[in-house]
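Weekly sync notes, structure subgroup
Attendees: PM, AL, DS (notes)

Item 1: joint prediction request from the bench team. They want all two components modeled as one assembly rather than separately. Inputs as received:
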Amino acid sequence: MSRPRPAEARGPRGARRAAAATPANPAKLRAGWATRFLRNVLLWLLPAWAVWALVTPLYNGFLLGAAQGLLHLTERPDVTALYRHPASLHDAYIARLDFPPARRLVKPFRVTDAHFHLVLAAALFLAVPGVPWRERLRSLGWALLAIVAFDVLLIFLQVKTVYATALGPWSQAHYGPFARNAYGLAWHLFDLPFKLALPFALWAGFNLRLLLGEPAPEHG
Amino acid sequence: MARRPVPPTDRPPTEAAPRQSPPARRREITFLVLFVVLLGAGFALISLNWVNDHAIEPFTAGVARASAVALRLLGQDVEMRGTILRSSHFAVNIRNGCNGVEAMLIFLAAVLAFPAPWRARAAGLALGVVAIQAVNLVRVVALFLTGVYLPRFFDASHTVIWQTLVILFAVLLWIFWANRLAGGREPAAAG
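Output from the run, pasted for the record:
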């Protein structure tokens, strides 16, 4: 591999650019970092979206299974079933097996809407300039784990909120006013702000030091 | 003697010393806790019926009005009723999630949670709100046109593409603000 040429060897423009970005001019250096970050995010957005679109059918199946398992921990006997829509990779039904067959499918919902924030997370984590690849991938791995856990909880809350608020007299008979309001608020918070802000909050958790002017943690 | 210019590196301006100090960790945790608390409080506030009816709905109607004006400028025959935009081919109801308030609240919580001078925060908030609403206006107009000309793509465009783009815009705007306008600190001294 060739060694990088000194700035002077790259001509006057290279030398000028290099001189402008010396530690004596940290504002310029900061601006350069932010611009590279923006460029990288835009470059990563399409590949992240493509991978997400490819794995979405599998991930939807996993989410439905995991959320159904979590729901079964809160009910005796196990009466909730989350069925995939036969004609769509993105949709599913909430079913209650203790309801009469004609009313068993209580609500359809779109599973894919729960996890499009994965695209944002991948683009943000992979785009950070100046962080070694191993560290970027490790941070992304932890972030994805957190997001998967969040997504399972989101589907769980969605089903519980449907039970508590959307089934008319049945909801009123089985859930009190406090439970209905608590599930409604939790669903409101999880489905919009927390879902949308989660990639950013996770990114900040791993990378805020770059903006706070703190030294980076040691990495191997 | 002239100093030799140092070649620019791909390192971020703040990555200098190998170990993170406890105060640094504390500042990160403070930021994250404040961010989540402000975000939760902001969204709990706008979920109150009174706030929704007296602030969010009129604001959303303003978004609809601005979108209708933009669509008419683009040659669409659009009429507006409340938060509903309607033409002979397509109609949309602009609701929470489509009015840019979510992105604004995320940006606001992040700006207020970040340790910066109040003047920089005020400037960031003012610029951020205007910029996010401008992008949201583009989103509503683009979605309406998608509904008119490419209705097959409306659902995916509505939830996946434009929500991601608007939130991404807010996040990138915040990163630029924190990096450049909030006076991001000098590089830490190498230890």
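Discussion: The two ends of chain B are 27 Å apart (CA to CA).
Action: AL to compare against the crosslinking data before next sync.
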